[in-house]
Batch of 4 targets.
Target 1
Amino acid sequence: MSEVKDKGNEQRHPASAPEVLEQAHAGDIHGALGTIRARDGAHRYGWRARGVALLAIMGPGLIVMVGDNDAGGVSTYAQAGQNFGTSLLWVLVLLIPVLIVNQEMVIRLGAVTGVGHARLINERFGRFWGWFSVGDLFILNFLTIVTEFIGVSLALGYLGISKYIAVPVAALFLIAMTASGSFRRWERFMFAFVFANFLVIPLAIMAHPNLGTMAHDFVVPGIEGGADSTSILLVIAIVGTTVAPWQLFFQQSNVIDKRITPRWINYERADTVIGAFVVVIGAAALIAVAAFAFNGTPAHANYSNAGAVASELHHYVGPAAGAFFAIVLLNASLIGAGAVTLATSYAFGDVFGASHSLHRGFREAKLFYGIFSGLVALAAAIVLIPGAPLGVMTEAVQALAGVLLPSATVFLLLLCNDREVLGPWVNGPWVNALASVIVAVLVTLSLILVATTLFPSINAATLSIYLGVALVAVLLVFGVTMLRRRERGAPAAALSPEARRNWTMPPLALLERPRWSAGRKAGMIMLRGYLFLAVLLLIVKATQLGGA
């Protein structure tokens, strides 16, 4: 390895970068708020120096978090506030560690390996799962993009602009913004959306929130009116709109595209933690808006859609509130469409080995930008079709996300315990314990969501109790098994902090495929069966709803 000099501190250390599969992924970091040279040693002393570095690194974590407060998120949070007041704010607090733990794992995968999530699954677990991961991501993301353009239509429709003008213009803007050939320019556009997200704060103030009530509901779990199938499904929807499979693919690839290496992981972790709190603050503000604006009015507990929320705010709070909500919805739809579509384009470029970097122009990355443009154009066109079953699509997106979330989280956990891939960066025991609980809870919630979506007569409260008991039993067995395996396993060789910081994954071709135990093979077969059956039932149900 060559040696470089840290200009700020005159200390010498080995340079390191992960395997480069796309040449545009190597070089200086050109962030929206600063630049870091490729040969910078990462040593920073003093708050000012660290703050400048954080500003340059900041982006992937903040964008992926705020991007998840998309049109579906705005609708879900508004529904929670309008129908249940602020009684569900405690759910948001519980989601903060879920967001941070899940996304911190993909930060390490991206920075240490230099390889996208889809490609890693393909190389480590076989072509079936690699293609399955890209295929299901494509279907789910495409339907999600459609819902984003539904949000654009509702927002600008409230402002008096025809959807036949609003939707095509929004689609062209997203394509032009992304295909500029400059990562920095794209990130600055996305930061503008991130800052616009804070418009929800003055909107919440207009609703005259009771801060004491909000503080109580943040820390004391409860559900206004009691727990029933409707309220439980809404809790699941809040989780589902906050933790989505596309986030894993997006942030891992965006970390790579921004050229973040292991030396800068701690800064990207900080970026992600900040993003997690920003998204929760935005979600809480949206819940508060609908909760306090409609409390004591006929609109309380009568949510219909996001467009109606804007109209009702106009009626009960004032024209400014309605306009602010429409702008927040439009902003959420645009940042969501941009991030979700980009996650899909990254995955396809990664698997096909084609150029897939925002540092390249359209001519240099035709497949990458072609997929992005095609997805945006087709999704926008569907929204414009008269009589299209948009309601069925919106419902199907939530159910499909529930079906596919378990496989995404299971593969994430397996990859982050693969020493061939992450070496000294593999999960520690406490991260594994927390991540395992999170995965188990997400699997349980996805099962409830799928079951209650496909079979509405099921009592969600009773189902939740039975699955909760089963979850505790499974976690206990899993915990005992992991403790015994850890006691038998040989400890990994210790590395110095400097060596660990400069460790990156060897070329993929040199890695030995992981050998699965009989238990793991059985688990993967069960996962295949679950996914096949659940997707099949979902298609049948969506077809029935579309023909109703």
Note: Residues 244 and 401 are 7 Å apart (CA to CA).
Target 2
Amino acid sequence: MLEQKTGFFRGSVLCLWLLLLISPTTHAQSLLGGFASGTGGGDVGQLVEESRVRENARTSAVATATEQIREVMERYPWAERQQLQSLADESVSEYLRSVERTIDDLQGDGALTVDEVVEELGQQRLKWINRLTGVLEARVQGHEPPPQPEEFDQTYRYHLAMARYVFLERNDTEQWLWVLAKVGIGVLVGWVLAKVFQVLTWNLWNHYRTVSAKTISLSKGPLYVVGGLVALYLALEPLWFPEGTEEVIYRVFLVLLILVAFWWVWYLCWAAAEIMAPMAHRTGGSGLEAHFKAVTRRVLRVAMLVVFLLIIVNVLFQSNLTQVIAGLGVIGLALSFAMRHLLQNVVASFSLMADHPVRVGEMAIYQGTWGSIEDIGLRSTRFRTFDGHLIAIPNDEFINEAINNVSARPFVRRRFRLGLSLRNSADKVREAIRIIKDILEARKEQQHPDKPYHAMFVDYGEYDIQILIQYCYVPPDYWGAKEFDSEVNLEILQRFNEAGIDLAIPARANRLEEHPERLRVMVEEEDQPAPRTAAG
């Protein structure tokens, strides 16, 4: 039967420590007693007397059997002491016969030493104690003793026999039905909690407490699993399992609870990042807020992962956390040289968060390529080009490059020259400038108030009259600015056509227009077949 525990976290370290104390060496030393104290006492290679070993083995076995009977009588007061004593005497006799055989085998070389007794008889005595305990408890409860490994020639046969004994004989059908009933009750409790959490989440959403509502919603899964594990553990607690299995089951449940706690804390890292995000928003706006939440969430999750791994190592191997942390410090010093590039990228990610030259979602130009910042991670920044390609740039390289943050500009400036034909008169040029100013004036609300538009005759080109046009579009949206440019261009073209203002024609087209016979000659030449070469 599983040992009674008041909680899942009580006494795990102490139990394993006691198991380590009950080692074969400790039991073997009790066999030796004080017969080796004549010449040095502590030398395991010292010769010992056969009679002293036999006498100490007999005395120790009788005392151990008496103690086992007393413990069984305390757990099962209705047990008959005479029956237990008879079983114990039979087990002691069998054990002493096996000790005789072991001593005879050890004396094959003509000598009996302390280290031989410690190594051989220690394991033998430990197995006998476990077997005696199982026999006494089984007989008291009216069952056959559990199978022993020595009774089978192959290991898998022993495991099959033990599984049959546990599931079909030692734990009867009624006990397994109680297990199913308790698990069903746990599922029912989980369903009720689901309904309560659902109502609570709706109320929080209605009161615009988004973070709290989502935190409770994300916590439902881990809490359901915890409820199921608790119900299953309580259901298995009254059942009988082989010696040592109960501790394995306890450790498995403890590790599962730790993993569920890690799952829950993983979600809480999201909530913590959401709660701290407004500070970043007040400092640098929504772009910094998104970056801050992503980095904070990842840093917290990495820290939690390291902490939970240390806890699991401590639970499974019962190691000293102080020694583990000290060992990790030495290993970390060695890994810091091998992982210096990774560490540089991690440090650069914090620099990006503090300096925020770019933020998630912003448009930027990196090494002459236009794109948007899709994510800023601990190791790299993801840059999505306008062609759709995703480029992962190490943070250390990204922070050392000159980055043109297009989204950070307060407006989108357009400055270009419009060429008018040289055949236009001065009045036509003045009218063209007036038309351009009227078009820009009509759209003044879409331009920066501190950056007035300009339209003026600035220079003569080789084949045109050049009008300089400049305006600043707001807000600084790339595609919005392109739409604005398109509307301005179309209206200029329409108004110029209505006013009879000619735009400049490229020089080659202008000459062909003046000499149409040249165009005819060029077309005829293009229609002629290619000349044949000498080789052809």
Note: Residues 411-512 form a domain with the Alpha-Beta Plaits fold (CATH 3.30.70.100).
Target 3
Amino acid sequence: MQSRARAAIAALFPPLFLFAVNAWICWRLLHTEYLDQMQSIEGSFLALATYIENHWPLYDWFPVWYGGMPFGRTYPPGLHYTVAIAARGFGISPASAYHLITALTYSLGAVTFYYLARALGGDRTMAFLAGMVFSVFSPSTLLLPAVRADAGGFLNARRLQALVVYGEGPNVTGLMLVMLALALLHRALRKRTPASYLLASLALAAVPIVNWTATIALVLGLTAYVVAGEGRAILANLPRLVLIGAVTAAMAFPFELPSTIRSTFLNAVSMEAGQSGGSGSHRIAFLLLVVALVLIRALLIRLRLPFGPRFAVLYFIVTGWVVLGAMWMNVRLIPLPERFHIAMEIPMVLTAAFAAAAVFRMWSPRVRVPVVVLLSILCLFQAIHYRKYARSIIRKTDIARKLEYQEAEWLGWNIHGGPVLLPGSTAFWANAFNEEPQVTGCCLQSLISNQPLISSYPIFAGYENDAESAGYSLLWLKAEAAQAIAIGGPNSRDAYREFKYPYRFKDRLPVVWSDGDDSIYRIPERAPGLARVVHSADIVRHPPVSGVDVTELRPFVAALDDPALPVASFAWVDSNTARVNGILAPGQAISVAIAWDPGWSATANGQSIPVRADGLSFIVLEPNCSGACDVRLHWSPGAEPGFMIAIALLTLTAMAIWCFRDRFKARA
């Protein structure tokens, strides 16, 4: 009994100690509601968690950002649903729940790193010391001057800074899961039991459910994992990898539909277009990466390195090629490569740990002991420094004193249903406090159409002077059915101060709220609301190619202001259904400032009518009514969610039966 207890203590102490150290470092975050970090994108994540807590909308339409979109396209939902459940379960605000959950996942990062190191063959001492180094050093600051400067020095906590200052909770959480998934995958391929396959699949599926950046880091890790294997091992494990991959996909698809994955990938590629360093340079870099992997793999096998070190080195090469190639030479192999420097730290520390362990084993005990003591002292001082650094960036704030809250509060009380255009940090945070739709929003990979980017660009960037800027801005704001716009000048309290010509609307539009250099202007509308009646001939038919391509926009906006045209009312019936009423004549159309999607259908006075997109990617209805017109709009995600749920349940059932049969055979 005593030997079992000692073994249990020996097994549990390292991960528990690592968790405790990291929790001690970020302790203040565990009980903080709002941070004094308004430039952070976490405001958008709080908006999603708040919306989930109010609506639980996994397969519903989300009307808040960019004219609306299927909720599943906004962002991988795993973390936000967890936050909403925690907020509801503990009776706390989504902000408090978000910081509680992300502080825990940050602290668990060192624990899953430890398990990954152990799974790959590291002994307990090596894995524990590597976990400590991972906890209190950010090696990316050594290789990347820009990261080092942003972090304030190579001794500061980059991963914690990313979480607290920039709001990278999903990425930090996702990377924690990446390490867990890789460890469980390796164990599954060694144990070869149905239960281990299922556990690995669930861990792998959790990553894309939480964060796309971490998902790409996982794909890079899986690539390195396969390349690191020896020829016979790769062939032997191929059927098992296919099985685990299939189960992983089945578990992930109900939360990240294949159509969402496809659109997100295409949007990410489009966002990155034109950013690669030189014509064809990324293709050359990719070929060089392939050659490097082949040659280094051959060298590592020739040196008879075990699988663990081989994987660590190759994973570092893959992630380093992506990150360092972008930040040193501006060669971009994948979209947003700079974001992967935190993921790169995982194989960096693993590689260093395996190398140090190999050297360590060659030393005598007389040398080993002082080295371990010295490393422990360094980690202790670094942990103290990290805690001080954490306290310097984890600063509580009174949210009611912040511009973002004050403008959102005013808009929530005074603007009802119509979109507003907000700048910078105000756009990030507004929907954490209200559900007023925005012309823009978060996040670019979610867009159904790039038209909101074209329409908002001249508003933020301006054009030549105040008068021209005001003219173009008003055209686009009216076309977007915007009811208000918030603008800040050079002394704005907004974190980003995005507007050029910030005083363009002075004496041109009514100011309805003002504080210092920040103002909200009301947009004059003849008929405010999302449904506008115009002549069919005035509909914008061709997508504008730029913010000054307004040839078709001018007659459309003129029609919006035409007092001879009827006014239509618009109201949401539920999350997926809206009602439009008006008195229409033949030849008149209804432009609805909601993003067109194939899932929309409509009826007019009970009869089905076509739903098409105009050049602005808004919904156009031509009901051909003569008199009272009762239009019902309905959005449906189609059969895809139900199909994916059925596949997931069948897969889970089959795996459960296999697990029980295997367990029964083992007992027999």
Note: The mean pLDDT is 93.
Target 4
Amino acid sequence: MNAIHVLVDQPWVNQPWVARLGWTLVHFLWQGILIAIIYAAARKALRQSQPRYGLACVALVMLIAAPVVTFRVLAPDKSVAANPYLGKVPASSAAAASTANSPTDATVITHYVRRDSLMPWVVALWFVGAMVFWLRLTGGWLIAARMRRISVRNAPADWQRTLDRIKARIGISHPVQLLVSALVQAPTVIGWLRPIVLMPVGALAGLPAEHVEMLLAHELAHIRRHDYLVNVFQSIAEALLFYHPAVWWISGHIRAEREICCDDIAVAVGGDAFTYACALADLASRRPAFMNAALAANGGSLPERIGRLLNQPVRRASPRSGAGVVAAILLGLGALGVLAQSQPARKVFEAVTIKPNELGGGHSHSHSSDGRWNASMTTKSLIETAFGIKPFQLEGGPGWLDESNYDFVATTGDSTELTTRNLQPYLQSLLTDRFHLVYHRTQKEFSVYALMAARGGPKLTPSAGDEKGEGTNSNGNNGIIHMTGRYLTMASFANYLASELDRPVLDRTGIQGRYDVKLDFSASETVTTLPSIFSALQEQMGLRLEATKGPVEILVIDSVDKPSAN
């Protein structure tokens, strides 16, 4: 209370606008209730989420507009001496009242003067509360800004392409970057003009591909609808009008309906409500600390959202009833358990032949066509291929993992196109069934390189487009490497550099678009006819690599056996 005493002792409390602001805040109590009643009545007539969302946004705008209009209405006229509570009183009457001699007149005047004398306290209390919420809001913005660059790395190039494909289907034309973050527990969108999508560590590799695609569609729906900007407006409204329950009630409806609207877009893009419900349940089951209240990431009850997708509405528990809250949580967990048992079947090869290669280890090749995969590689290379990781991201395991090759011939029994991403679930099942692989994931702070624009700016050739998609080719001998790439993003190029440097490379260029690249460099200190990869990047592409620290996902082998018999 000392801070409030200090505020009311300041000279500004005698300014006319203080009483006006105080009465504005008081009048908003009944105005907010009236707007909430009108909103509740109109909401009952609507059944679709999008109209309900629009209605809630209009109601929030009205809540913001009401104090502004009231403050202007209470502005005194120059020819009027007015009390904001009484309305406008002619100057002659005010003068007469000031010279009143009767006790009754003096009592009335004193009564209203005392009411006005309370307004500095009202304004001071409101100001302190608003400052607390503004500090909270500012802290949230600063954290969001840090999340763009702290403990993040580029998502694999295949997933960035998937995001771009979904983005085109939803109707987003501007660039959106996909990053993997150690700071989020659920897919998250940050930014409006330059939005990014953050995925939790392990989600891209640990969740089924179709689940990840629908979760990405949900986040892209937020971007298309400009929800980030609306959320900023909500946060400002909550900070200014924090003392009125109607503001929080209507703002909560906006957040809940927003999630449902994005759920509908994700289902429209993916075409399968059940798969999306499974994706929500699967994501939640991998976030145990987040499940203590069974709530979705950005508003709305997760059991209610899943129940709605399955046409089995979950009744909302009364906030006054502790038993009701417990029942809702148990019901949500039960729904998650049912869905967990309904996950799509593992992708397993119909037939697999594995034979030791007589040439030993040290060489590797892989070829896939529709429904067929042929390869010769070590078990270590097989694990790296199956999980899409680099050698430095694999730890543990016996010494024989990298000693000898196995020849693989596998068929799916159909004409499945075995692209790298489609092949990985089959290889993971193969490792589980035939090699009895047991593993866990962790994260370590690693020495990494940050790919950045060099002084003078980048020297890049924009790609004219390629129907074959992006790709890289690297060849050479005697320590000289000639690398070419087509239709590459900077994130894809960073992944290529990581394979050459055996160290993670993070894209920090901020450069959007796709480019055709060519890089000639020396991979050996004894070869001086060409520059090193570091010098070649600066001279030929206007880019540079800066050593730094960053989080890297690690796959740790707990146990693995040599393959079982055919």
Note: The chain has four domains: 2-144, 150-340, 351-435, 445-555.
